[in-house]
Structure to design on (327 residues):
């Protein structure tokens, strides 16, 4: 109990909340940066064509479309003595680490082991998307309402910083040492960010680890009793709001465009224009860092903040609240 009581509590410090959410968002940007940007550039340098690169990106990005399902599941199930979202965050990060470990051990060839690498990328991004939903839910749980706009800017900046770091470091590691070393570097980075939720608690009195001393907070215990009917009903209620439908349509069109550009860019720059894959990765990373800095400085209140007044799964609230920053 002494160890548990001596560790920081997110609910008690504004800047600890901001810093932790920023670091956690940078962690989930690492699988995205390696598999969606650095590896396609490497594929282009290895002679794979646009169709193959597009197929790979489609497979590894697919788990990010399942987040709407993950939110209600997290709202229903958790290990309350360790917090409402923290067990999910730790489990997702452990999954990312295991995924990168498998990539480093198997190190499939981009041509002969294409589908194996795509499956590992799917697995890694599955846990990255799972962490994204868990951290979103944690943000809604622990942030004060007047902190959300500012915290959203830090979270956005952290994610772009993570993507940029993985893109640049991963691109150089792939070019100089190969896939195995690139995966190990990502594994180490995720492990370092995992120390943040490992040694923090959401609320006073909660357990640090399953076997530690501590107990569930009253508010977490009370919220875990919601029925599936209540959770799904509140979700459907907000999804069918006119503004929600407009947002889904706009985001869908945006993602289609982004997918085409992400596929074509490395082919044009590396194969047609003769860029080195590291130059492409560095260019992408630098643009990302600039976007992150601007996003943090210009952090603003979402036009959709009014949607958070409706009763909906908390892990969905912050995604809707944050979404305009991703256009």
């Amino acid at each position: 109990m002494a160890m548990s009581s001596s560790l920081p509590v997110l609910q008690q410090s504004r800047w600890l909340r901001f810093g932790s959410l920023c670091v956690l968002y940078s962690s989930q940007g690492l699988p995205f940066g390696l598999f969606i940007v650095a590896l396609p550039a490497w594929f282009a340098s290895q002679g794979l064509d646009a169709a193959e690169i597009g197929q790979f990106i489609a497979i590894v990005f697919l788990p990010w479309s399942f987040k709407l399902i993950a939110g209600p599941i997290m709202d229903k199930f958790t290990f309350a003595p360790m917090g409402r979202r923290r067990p999910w965050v730790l489990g997702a990060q452990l999954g990312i680490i295991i995924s990168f470990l498998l990539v480093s051990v198997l190190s499939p060839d981009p041509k002969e082991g294409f589908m194996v690498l795509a499956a590992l990328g799917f697995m890694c991004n599955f846990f990255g998307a799972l962490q994204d939903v868990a951290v979103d839910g944690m943000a809604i749980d622990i942030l004060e309402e007047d902190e959300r706009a500012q915290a959203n800017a830090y979270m956005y900046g952290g994610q772009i910083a993570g993507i940029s770091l993985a893109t640049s470091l991963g691109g150089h590691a792939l070019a100089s040492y190969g896939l195995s070393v690139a995966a190990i570097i990502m594994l180490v980075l995720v492990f370092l960010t995992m120390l943040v939720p490992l040694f923090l608690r959401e609320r006073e009195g909660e357990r640090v680890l399953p076997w530690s001393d501590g107990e569930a907070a009253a508010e977490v215990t009370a919220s875990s009793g919601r029925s599936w009917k209540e959770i799904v009903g509140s979700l459907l209620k907000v999804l069918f709001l006119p503004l929600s439908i407009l947002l889904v349509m706009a985001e869908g069109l945006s993602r289609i465009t982004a997918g085409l550009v992400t596929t074509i860019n490395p082919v044009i720059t590396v194969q047609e224009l003769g860029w080195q894959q590291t130059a492409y990765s560095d260019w992408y990373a630098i643009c990302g860092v600039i976007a992150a800095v601007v996003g943090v400085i210009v952090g603003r209140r979402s036009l959709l903040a009014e949607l958070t007044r409706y009763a909906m799964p908390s892990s969905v609230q912050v995604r809707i609240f944050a979404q305009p920053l991703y256009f």
